Amino acid sequence: MANQVKIRDRGGYVYTIPGNNVSETAIDISSYTKVKHPNLFIDMRSAYSYTQFLALFRIAISLQPIIRTNFDTPDGKISLQAKNVYWDKKSHMVEIVLPLRDFGVRPEHYNELERALLDMSRISVTFPQRSALTNAELSATGGLCHVAIERKNKRRQNAHFFFHEQIVHTIINPQNGFSQILKETVEKASSIYTAKLYFNICRWADKGQWTVPYLELRSILNVDPTKYNSYHDFRKRILKSSADALMHKTNYWFTFYERFPQRSKIPDIIYFIIHNGQLSDQERRDYKNRVSRIKDTGSHLGITARSMNSILEKITPQNSRYVYRKHNELLAYIADNEGEITNHAAYYRQAMQNIVLGELLKPAEIQAEFDFSNPSIL
Predict the structure, then answer these.
(1) Record's superkingdom (predicted)?
(2) Into how many domains does the chain fold?
């Protein structure tokens, strides 16, 4: 990630603005496998390991035929039928079988893999439960599943996950929501923090942004209280590392900025700006055309390329329509007030800077009171 700009608001808070050039071409992800991932798994706050995280993801993949069928069922009734999924209606249990080889662990490390999988019974989940005594719909909390390991021979080494049917109903119920995840992105993730951030970015992709308190973010990522106590380390090893790992390489990636209370080195809020890597050819052409026209305007006014780049690099495919509309309104205003504006170039540059920074800071609480007149480079 490039240098960041520091902006203050009237209340004394300091905001860091990403200086990334998000206009570079994204990789081709057309062949990637799309997974409808249950938001229930994304929203869980249990401190599970990376192996357990992969197990949950592969369970979601196993449930894809069921999830897709339910999306297409007009009456909303949920069915449970898949190749490696068995629903025992008498015991009210659903069994999902996954080969150990699917976890990408060498056989000599299967003992460690088994321990991680068996420990998944400790993961708690909340699901609806009807009381037979009161006929009331209750909210029950219990273990996610039971796990058994089968290693009779080298050809048959499987993990069996046994879920109560009500938990599976909750997992695959469309009313609880799904996020589109790319299987290949998860498999390439170098850390559980990158994977969890990616999942949450996909969770909020339709909003284009995700705002979360710093301490809550640590909880969401299940960062051990003894690790990354310095925000500098947290930012470098988790936020920046994950942003760099995902940028232009998947369906959704992010840039971020922070809000720092006065005289504090620890932010109270993190703002994630979500970028879409699935633009149509027309959307890409429109975006490049808008940026090109703004760039040409700056050049015509005699503004240096370096000064304009600090503005252009903050124009994204998502905000380009808004920025270009404000750009046209700005040119019309300058033309109507030509006699009163003595330096057109300086006025245009400052106004365009206000426009792009204001758009990036839109999720912030006190946007109307930002001071854009004197930004500094971090």
Answers:
(1) Bacteria
(2) 1
